[in-house]
Each structure stands twice: as structure tokens, then as C-alpha cells.
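Justification of computing resources. Each target in the renewal requires a structure prediction run like the one illustrated here; the chain below, 174 residues long, is used simply to show the kind of job we budget for.
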Amino acid sequence: MGKQAARTRGFGGTQMALVGAVLFVVSWFVPVYSGQQLFGALPGVAKAFGASGQGPLAALDAPEWLPGWGACKFAWHLLIDGDQLPSDDAWKQRLAGSSCLTNAAMVLGLLLLVASRQRLLVGLLLLGCVFVNSSWIWLVDQNPFDVYRAGYFLWLGSFAVVGIGAVAQAGRST
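Resulting C-alpha cells:
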């Protein structure tokens, strides 16, 4: 009875991970930054991170029904863009660009949580991803609510919610 009562009381780590997974999926379908519907604002955003806004960044396209894909492609191009930048700006571009890789960490983390393995490690990894993903806020010297839309905040929050849920699950299983 004790374990069953603990499972039915309150909002636990499993429920948090599930809510975070739903937030992650939904975030891919919601606009991520201001002006995303036009896709013409990407080169301007690229310049804020030190990329040229030329070449592959100028021609980014994504289906309008999947705004998260366009944002992921944009981050990927920041990561791999071969522009020669001053060292002061290059690390910012690479850090923000590496946020596209955190999506793989989320998918892998969710699979590991479903398999009931390495909950603490998954939780800490996803909480580390929150730091990388939040670089879009603290590296751009603008009000984040003027630049980013709900999709970005849902995406960022999904990592925090799944990470906290996974850590909570690990704490309950010990």
C-alpha cells in the first residue's frame, strides 16, 4: 500500500517528464522568434550572433507548419558556418548553434526514461541542455520577449521540466 499511495499522491517525476515531452513536441509547431512566418528575418538574427547572413543562412527554408525545424536548421548553420569570426564572437555563435544538438539529447533522454535507465544522468544532461539552450537569451542584448515567441519558451521549458522530472524520478527510486 505504501508504494501505491506514493504513486497516486501529487505530481511526480514521471508526470513531469510526460508534460515536458508534450511541451517539446508542441514547441516544434509554434513560432520560435519574431517574424518567423516570413523567414526573411533569419539573416538579421544571424548577424546578431556574428554570422554573415549570406550563403546557406540567407536561403534557409522550412515548412511553415513546423517552425521549430526552421529554428533548428538556423542553429545548425550557426554551428557549422565557416565564416571567420573574431574569437570574441565565434564562441557565441558556436554555443548558440550547438543548441540544435540538444534536440538529439532530448530524444535520447526520453527514450532512456521510457526504458527506465539512467534517470539521474538523463536529468542532469537535460538540465545542462537548459544552459546551452538559454544562451539564445543571454547572448543577445535584447529583451527576449521582443525577439522570441512561445515556441522558444516552450522548447526551453521542456528541457527543464523533463530534466527536473528525471531527477525527481531518480530520487524516488533510490
